[in-house]
């Protein structure tokens, strides 16, 4: 390009374009990578702009020299209105105006006057100004009004230019404004009166009982109504809602349709503990122990014109935000069609989620950030979640300035480029408009969006609490503040849409209806006793998990038949090709191949499989390799996607570095997709402790509390190899301590065949009454150990054995004096060392491996004890410290079952506060002592 051409291009920029392009060029000069590719390419072609005098001269011809400085100042003014308008907005119902500085709005801050602004053509300072904006003054007044009312916006953190432009246009063109005809306004008032009346009735009737009222954030219910209405119009099939206890009873009653009489019954019969009605639950899910009423979820089916839409409010414990990933997993599962091979792509409009957060919990609970991080990852994305912060400006008794280090409760979302809208909860029509906007954004961009619903809390954290002791001035203000229903009624009266008497009659009608329902309930069932379902008996029914050897051979062949033009990493190809010999005479199937064959046969049976975890595609220990990478072009190939006989989908993803959110997601997925085998793998079993709330509140107790079924599999690498305190223990003692009422299965396996059969057993029971989670302590060093490999016939003709006896021991039962019980890796260590022992030892002791730790195989162990008439000692052997591992729980079973007169001994590490030593030499010494003590036949007594 010649000099004249370059000069003409540079001179074509003026107004806001000029400022933008020159600012971008300055950034380009400092760091070319700081501007986008298009601009960088342009600047490379243009070279530097003409001299400053030439530029000023060009612009001066357009607007005159005297206004150049005013134009620059006006551009800054309008930019700051967009950037900082939220600081001056009237979003706080308890304040008359914005509580932050509004200096950025004042013209003298920019050395501007109204007259100067009026002389500037609008298109010089606002490129996309609406046609009715003629000059800078009108632009200033319009944007000042748009950005500083009862809705405030934060979009500056959005990097995508087209997205930002859409957001700005939507707001600045005032598309967010909704026309509310009279009937819609009356309908909205009626809803607010229902919401308020329900809370008032509970307050008057059940004095002092906890309900965590919605009052101060009443608009949450009509907003959810509007969202559901929008979803129904777009043929959505499932809408999932996650929320904590604030306002939950009101949402259950009015959004989910839980009958008033059922809620009243719960209050009447059990003030703070859920007792389960025998009838009339209308989609409410219960377990056998139940939960407090403000934790329970519900399902509501809404019949649309073409299909039934299901609204699901997820059960939620008091661990506040931990329901977030659970809801996301449910949503993802509802979006996918899993009954075809390959990867199941989600239909993002088929289902969507709404998460209602607390203003203290949103920045305070780390699981919120973990869940937000999932939002655009390919293994977890759901096409955007609509977040609502139910902002009552308090956390229990803690003021906002003591609960966060940010200006707003919503600021965390900025890091994930989520648009933020703040809205005054006392402006009903703006609240509805914001919800419409959020829904449209989610549908267009398939991204999360956040509404900060700013209100207050009329009473204490719960209704037994007096907030005046900690926030006296605030609650004096709240006491004198009219409710949103009252305020909106006054608005409608002032607009002559109804009379004051009509409004008062509506209030009376609501209260009268509630009283009538309560009176009938009291007469009919005040003393009715409620029944609580009982858990099913412990144990899992025996199911056929065999697969013919011909099918297994064919699957193995297909797994190793990748496309000819696919270049598998040579070292890996050599390793994988060894599997071709697994079904030859004398061949062995190792742990990784057994797992792959299990997955393949489950897909063959028509059951979907989903596996996620940190590094699960390759396997933390480089053993799995279910995803192959072409070493020449990095293309990916999943052999399980190309099996000819597969009849269901297979999903495999490396997860982000998260335990809580990812495990919660997979639990939610398994609850929704009950026909699928869903597995989560910890990088090391020790890391599972980061997800303890998900385990305790959902996986262990979800069925007992809520009747919520899951067959989630947790794979926890476990075993003591001298790798230190955080790379040894999957903390099986914690799972065993929570094992009761047949709530889950805990296994510690010692062979590839056992792993194959337990996975197949789990897939068979996923969607039946016997479904329950499965916790497997998987090996690390044993993944390639010869003694864990199995023969093909063990897969084709075998089954999962609760108890596995060590071959070569106890062959003469009357000679056996010592019976060793063990589980997992230590059993292989014993078997290895036994080969070096005097053969006579094998006659004096017998070794049995307890493969399923819970439900404990009582009958099998009891029968085992009976075989040895001269038994003197039963010894439990483990690698873990005495206060950890299986012993603290299983010793009760062993002592109850052992024959009279037989001693019970423990062999393992001493009690410890840390799971293991970090010194390899100490570890080896301890391990050698454990093995030696276990194989030493003694007269009895416990060994330390």
- Report the structural category: alpha/beta
The name of the CATH topology of the largest domain is: Rossmann fold
Question: What percentage of amino acids are in beta strands?
Answer: 5-15%
Shape verdict? globular
The CATH superfamily name of the largest domain is Thiamin diphosphate (ThDP)-binding fold, Pyr/PP domains
CATH C-level class of the largest domain? Alpha Beta
From the coordinates shown, what is the CATH architecture of the largest domain?
3-Layer(aba) Sandwich
How many distinct helices?
A: 35
Low-confidence stretches: 52-57, 270-282, 526-530, 939-944
- Strand arrangement within the widest β-sheet reads 1-9-10-6-5-2-4-3
Mean of pLDDT? 89
Quaternary structure state of the chains depicted? single chain
Separation, N- and C-terminal Cα atoms: 87 Å
The portion of residues assigned to helices is: 40-55%
Radius of gyration: 34 Å
Tally of individual domains: 5
Total strands: 24
What does this molecule look like?
This protein has five domains: 3-46, no CATH class; 65-89 and 107-148, no CATH class; 182-323 and 351-520, Thiamin diphosphate (ThDP)-binding fold, Pyr/PP domains (Rossmann fold, 3-Layer(aba) Sandwich), CATH 3.40.50.970; 542-797, Rossmann fold (3-Layer(aba) Sandwich), CATH 3.40.50.12470; 808-935, Multifunctional 2-oxoglutarate metabolism enzyme, C-terminal domain (Rossmann fold). α10 packs across α21 (500-525), α13 packs across α21 (500-525) and α14 (323-335) crosses α25 (660-672). An eight-stranded mixed β-sheet has the order 1-9-10-6-5-2-4-3, sandwiched between helices. The protein starts with a helix and ends in a 10-residue tail after the last helix. It is globular, with a radius of gyration of 34 Å. The chain contains 35 helices and 24 strands. It is of the alpha/beta class and 944 residues long. A hairpin with a 2-residue loop joins β7 (394-395) and β8 (398-399). Residues 589-785 form the Transketolase-like pyrimidine-binding domain. It holds the Pfam family OxoGdeHyase_C.
